[in-house]
Amino acid sequence: MSAQASSAEVSADVIEKFSPVDGSHLGNFPITSPADVNLAVKAAREAFPAWRDLSLDQRFAYLDRLRDIVSAEGEAFAKIISDDTGKPLLDSLLTELMAIPLFIDYYKKEAPKTLKRQKLSRQLFFPTKTSYVEHSPMGVIGVISPWNFPFQLSMIPVLSALVAGNTVVLKPSEVTPLTGELMREIFERAGFPKGVVSVVQGDGSTGAALCKADIDKIFFTGSVATGRKVMAAAAEKPIPVELELGGKDAMIVCHDANLERAARAAVWGGFLNCGQMCISVERLFVVDAVYDAFLALVRAEIERMRVGGPDEGSDMGPLTFSAQMGTVVRHLNDARERGATIAMGGRPMEGPGQFFEPTLVLDVTEEMEIYREETFGPVLPVIRVPDEEEALRMANDHQYGLTGSVWTRDVSRGLELASRMESGQCSVNDVVLSVGNPALPFGGVKRSGFGRYHGPEGLYAFMNQKAIMVDRGLLDVEPFWYPYAPKYEAMLGTFRNLMGGKMVRALTNFFEMHKITKRRG
Ligand code: NAD
């Protein structure tokens, strides 16, 4: 295949990487064989007990070294990520590398509280018992990540799993092998003990080998189609799986929104990362009353955008993955045929690279592919609605539910609409940024997947919960233990009074059982 034809070509043992910006050859990257995937998992299994037994401070010492490396060489790393993906350098710093200090600092503060054994309140019918909940690491975690944010979407689950005391094998996307290699180098230089974290490179077959290997959980970010396969592989064992899948996020612009802010947000949220974002604005609902004024602002904002390679001070780069071009063109053709208006853009750009014009599509309706399926490209589909209730109904009547946003000056109304949106996250008067807030749990509903990470959930995602109940052991016998016969009436009384909400009587009956048990020795 020609260099321009694809951003990455995979043969039996090598990934050939081509620049999405100009098609030049960026290097060949060896594919990890299934046997070597197993060896990486074996090393992770052997490294697990020692890593688990380190104190949090000891684990964070390694993460601090990693933080120092990223801090010292952030600009050079941003360049590698931008070469790999085509995204603006600013995006590589903001949406990829910033995750390192944000999440490490957050977990440093939160992990001691989150991971502490918790004592629960005493229960009425368990008067002599003390109850605790604690969490222990699962073991070896397989992390499989996509190409759109190849650094951040790998690093956050990996670092969270490590903080929680697990060891990890990471399989990044074959579309962005430069970033895969960069992460391998960063882990090596941070000096993690052998086997604690490894990177295996390759395509779906490498991912499938990792799913089959001796791991304790799969953390998967990617498409619904692959998510199904990953879940089926997990079901074979069975082991737990977390699926972070696609989205078709709704943005609802109400009649009283700050239109200037909302228009800028719609364009940024729709075109950031060339629209290749699971939480991209992919359905922009605008109420009739402000439609024309809002659309004029959106058009002006799109006109101001600069498209180009990472070094050209552009706002938007090319499509990272050449196959996306086909999806974008297919969705636009289908929309055109079904009566949509391509108001701006709509075509691949002249010249080398995988550039596509920022595209505004109006008169979008529910039966169009561009409405139903994830487009994952620089396309902003707009739907005119009579009011925000209709917008919310349409937003919810969809297979996906990842994030979304509501725009109104009435914050309590915004909060109410946000609560009713069927999604894992929803913002009021903001877009995309909630995913970068390390304290907020992230994950989807419906086909967008299940499970949560970020926030305390980001540690619990990689831990088994254990419940412990302690009795000081001072009584020789419990009220419920044998013999049964003399206690039946007291038990019946306990049950009936409990059901009737008569707690004092129920407790009296309960202690009666205890007395009878003791009398009988
Ligand atoms: P993809 O499903 O094609 O690939 C994701 C990863 O899975 C890659 O590393 C790939 O090599 C691997 N893989 C492929 N087949 C496999 C198999 N049989 N077993 C195990 N692993 C396998 O997805 P993509 O094209 O890389 O990413 C785009 C998709 O990811 C979009 O749908 C997007 O919405 C979604 N995404 C979701 C989130 C989220 O947080 N919810 C974030 C980013 C991207």
Flag low-confidence runs.
1-5
Number of strands: 21
User: Mean pLDDT, rounded to whole units?
Assistant: 96
CATH architecture classification name of the largest domain: 3-Layer(aba) Sandwich
Distance separating the two termini: 85 Å
Give a short account of the largest sheet. Answer: 7 strands, mixed
Number of H/I helices: 17
CATH fold category name of the largest domain: Aldehyde Dehydrogenase, Chain A, domain 1
Could you explain how this protein is built, in words?
Keywords: Oxidoreductase. GO terms for molecular function: oxidoreductase activity, acting on the aldehyde or oxo group of donors, NAD or NADP as acceptor. Belongs to the aldehyde dehydrogenase family. This is Aldehyde dehydrogenase. One of its GO terms (biological process) is aldehyde metabolic process. The chain has helices spanning 34-52, 56-85, 89-97, 99-114, 152-163, 177-190, 204-212, 224-236, 259-271, 291-303, 323-337, 369-372, 388-396, 411-420, 457-460, 488-499, 503-519, and strands at residues 8-10, 14-18, 25-30, 118-119, 129-137, 140-144, 167-171, 197-199, 217-221, 241-244, 249-253, 281-287, 341-344, 359-362, 379-385, 400-401, 404-407, 427-428, 445-446, 449-450, 463-471. Mean pLDDT is 96; it is low at 1-5. Strands 13-14-15-12-11-17-18 form a seven-stranded mixed β-sheet, with helices on both faces. It folds into three domains: 33-245 and 456-465, 3-Layer(aba) Sandwich (Aldehyde Dehydrogenase, Chain A, domain 1), CATH 3.40.605; 249-435, Aldehyde Dehydrogenase, Chain A, domain 2 (3-Layer(aba) Sandwich), CATH 3.40.309; 476-520. Strand 1 (8-10) and strand 2 (14-18) form a beta hairpin. With 521 residues, it is of the alpha/beta class. The termini are far apart. Helix 2 (56-85) runs antiparallel to helix 4 (99-114), helix 4 (99-114) packs parallel to helix 5 (152-163) and helix 16 runs antiparallel to helix 17 (503-519). The protein has 17 helices and 21 strands. It is globular and about 95 Å long. Nicotinamide-adenine-dinucleotide is lined by residues 144-148, 153, 171, 173-174, 203-204, 207-208, 211, 221-223, 226, 229-230, 244-247, 278, 374, 376, 402, 444, 449.
